[in-house]
Amino acid sequence: MIETNTINLLRSLVSFDTTSYKSNLKLIEFIENYLNKLNIKSTLIYDDTKNKANLYATIGPEDIGGVMLSGHTDVVPVTGEIWDSDPFNLIQVEDRFFGRGSADMKGFLALILSRVPEMLQANLSRPIHLAFSYDEEIGCVGVHRLLDIIKNNPVRPIFCIVGEPTNMQVVTGHKGKCGYNVIVNGLACHSGQAPLGVNAINYAAKLIVYISELAKEKSIKGPFDYDYEIPFTTLHTGVLSGGTVVNIVPDLCKFEFEIRYLAEDNPKELVNKIKIFAEENLLPNMLKVSKEAGINFEKKVSYPGLLIQHNSKLVKYIKKLLNNNKHKKVIFGTEGGLFQSKLSLPTVVCGPGDINQAHKANEYITLDQLEKGGKFLDSLIASLNDDFSL
Ligand SMILES: [Zn+2]
Q: For the chain, which has fewer Cβ within 10 Å, the N-terminal or C-terminal residue?
């Protein structure tokens, strides 16, 4: 089946520049109107600025939990990327559709919307819930408000499919992530009097080395999950700044580190170790020289990992729908870990497109992936008949 409807919808969705730092309301209103015309009510859950919103809608019976199809509406920026075409104007070249968000993940949203008439005709025994979020790309920020609404609903979904691009293979896990800004305050002085100052870069460096030692320890002691290319929790420092000129002892150094952890690992323990090292091994020496010295940690992004057993009922069911017995784990994060941890909702990730074609110039999705995604949704809808059980 050629996905003409899907492609037209995808063209509309891509035309809204929903880069995370911008408003997504025009796109959300487009979806709300589309659903409205089909007599489906949407609940919009706004952020504080009222410039962004999540959308939640239920198709089918409202007194029973169903299948939640989850996707984010925001996209990563095109800044600094060199595109061969306008990123917000979907174009087709042979069997590829180019545009920002085509793979990650407006293709999935377009497929869902294209199937709504079919869902309405299907006489579903279980409903389909649409859960579309904002601010996913900046660390799964927007979906929290949606989680609160779902949590307090009398009827909760029974499982969730997050349609991030997995080439339509079922994904049973990804790592969690937490990131920190570290601000090291020292005491400036002329470099000729270095011992009278507190060199913030030196102390930051000691802490960074400690973080890299913890990373090494993790690689040796685990825990391990060999479904991952890197089968253990990783720690890494990615950004550093400090100092002004070489003849001044720097009084400020900032750096950022992150932990990407297996769902079964405990990142808090690692963060505590880092904080204790700073307090016990670094701060006393700093404070001896200056009472103003300090090391402060600011939590940045964080989302939990996802892990669902590959022999669970949900994974078996999805594999049957896909007619594909394989499963995998992925290196990128999704909102799936939050659905699992905050709503206790069995969750898999499965969607059209390839993550390798996302987050870069000339992002695209292939017709083949859209067709596979469409077939999957058709099978899913057909399975939600009176015989449905999980
Ligand atoms: Zn995504």
A: N
Report the C-alpha gap between 381 and 182 in whole angstroms: 48
- Dig out the tokens for 134 from the structure: 């904002």
Give me the residues near ligand 1 (ion), CB cutoff below 5 Å: 104-105, 164
How far does the centroid of ligand 1 lie from the alpha carbon of residue 140, in Å? 10
- 239-276: string of b/e by CB count within 10 Å (b at 16+)? eeebeeeeeebbbbbbbbbbbbbbbebebeebbeebee
Contact residues for 293 (Cβ-Cβ < 8 A; gap 6+): 185, 186, 187, 198, 283, 286, 287
What's the CA gap between 105 and 100, in Å, rounded? 9
DSSP state of 278: I
- Cis? peptide before 119, omega within 30° of 0: no
pLDDT on residue 2:
77
C-alpha of residue 175 to centroid of ligand 1, in Å: 15
Query: Which tokens in the block code for residue 12?
Result: 């509309």
| Arithmetic mean of pLDDT over the chain | 96
pTM > 0.85: yes
First to last CA, the chain: 29
DSSP state of 200: H
User: How far is 235 from 232, CA to CA, in rounded Å?
Assistant: 10
Q: Which two tokens stand for residue 221?
A: 């002691």
Q: How many CB atoms lie within 10 A of CB 334?
A: 27
Q: What share of the chain is helix, strand, coil (3-state, %, to 5)?
A: 35, 25, 40
Q: How far is the CA of 189 from the centre of ligand 1 (A)?
A: 47
Cα 122–Cα 124–Cα 126 angle in degrees, nearest 5: 155
**Structural tokens at position 83:** 């595109």
| pLDDT tens digits, one per residue of 68-92 | 999 999 999 999 999 999 999 999 9
The total of other beta-carbon atoms located within 10 Å of residue 39's CB is 8
Work out the number of other CB atoms within 10 angstroms of the CB of residue 115.
22
CA of 74 to the centre of ligand 1 (A): 8
Closest CA to 140 of 272, 262, 24, 305: 305
Average pLDDT estimate for 179-199? 97
CA distance 327 to 227: 9
Structure tokens at 89: 């104007």
Distance of CA 219 to the CA centre of its chain: 24
How far is residue 179's CA from residue 257's CA, in Å, rounded to a whole number?
Answer: 6
